[in-house]
Design a protein that fits this description.
single chain, 9% helix, Lipocalin, 16-stranded antiparallel β-sheet, 3-stranded antiparallel β-sheet, mainly beta, 301 residues
Length: 301
């Protein structure tokens, strides 16, 4: 059914837009001393091309993260709320615009599993890096602006649960080594609840849309060129996430690869920025692709 295809494509496009916030980026889990507070403002622009949808979104996401000592292991608490706009064109429906609104709030945390102890400021300088691993959990709440008469929305009208296992190998004399090199791999899975009020061109045509788990892996090779400048080469892949309408699969599962790069600038002990770009280089679905640009300002205290 033609409208089933449109709805499935619309859901996939929204997922890709929201997924930009889910991707962590290079050194997203770089250790900081316990008790550190991190306030970040991240601007994200995403361009998405699908067979029936072309969409652009821009969001600004303020977030707060606090580093914790969890019985000797490093941990964090995280909360954030994106605000922005998504607009585009849908085949058969014309232009769509969400207007400026709030996206889905997210809450999460991490805990160190291997070689990730909670560090004091003194211990931080002396800590010998190497292999480390942590566990991450996060939930996206259906708090964002959502209108079932529109295809494109900042809010998804469903819960999303995310789990990650960040692993890294760090080469250097210490975490403050000006020539530090890190290798990171972050496998993840997103699990979605159903949307019981999806878009439909005819009232009552559909009652529920769902989505299978979406698996992902991102990898980063990062090198510090000085105490102030670092850069990374980035790779991202997604697999799965087939949508369904009233329990019937739409055969639109994802299989994609994106490549990119990140530049980080540490301007002082309390302020840092990073800029990253990624572009889809492969998708099993023809005429499907996109690109993402992100800029973050982080304030530590």
């Amino acid at each position: 059914m033609r409208f089933t295809t449109i709805v499935a494509a619309a859901i996939a496009s929204v997922l890709m837009i929201a997924g930009a916030h889910a991707q962590e980026g290079a050194r997203a889990y770089f250790p900081v001393p316990a008790g550190t507070n991190d306030v970040e403002f991240t601007g994200t622009y995403v361009h998405t091309d699908l067979p029936t949808v072309t969409a652009d979104s821009f969001t600004i996401t303020p977030s707060y993260r606090r580093a914790l000592d969890l019985f000797g292991d490093a941990g964090t608490f995280l909360i954030g709320i994106p605000v922005g706009r998504v607009s585009g064109t849908v085949t058969g429906l014309g232009a769509q615009d969400s207007g400026i609104g709030q996206g889905d709030m997210f809450i999460g945390g991490t805990i160190g599993l291997i070689n990730a102890p909670a560090l004091t400021p003194q211990g931080y300088v002396q800590f010998q890096p190497g292999f480390s691993a942590s566990a991450v959990g996060r939930v996206f709440l259906p708090t964002g602006a959502y209108d079932s008469t529109r295809v494109l929305n900042l809010g998804q009208n469903r819960f999303t649960f995310e789990a990650m296992l960040p692993m890294s190998f760090t080469m250097g004399q210490s975490l403050v080594d000006p020539n530090l090199t890190t290798f990171e791999v972050i496998p993840s899975v997103q699990i979605f609840s159903d949307n019981n009020k999806p878009f439909t061109p005819f009232p009552g045509l559909y009652t529920k849309t769902g989505q299978a788990p979406l698996f992902g892996v991102e990898a980063h090779v990062t090198h510090s060129f000085s105490p102030m400048v670092w850069a990374s080469a980035d790779a991202y892949t997604k697999l799965g996430g087939e949508t369904s309408t009233n329990g019937i699969g739409n055969s639109d599962g994802q299989e994609s690869v994106a490549l990119g790069a990140t530049l980080g600038l540490t301007l002082s002990q309390s302020f840092a920025t990073r800029f990253s770009y990624q572009h889809d280089v492969y998708s099993k679905n023809s005429h499907t692709g996109g690109s993402t640009f992100m800029a973050t300002a982080a304030f530590l205290f």
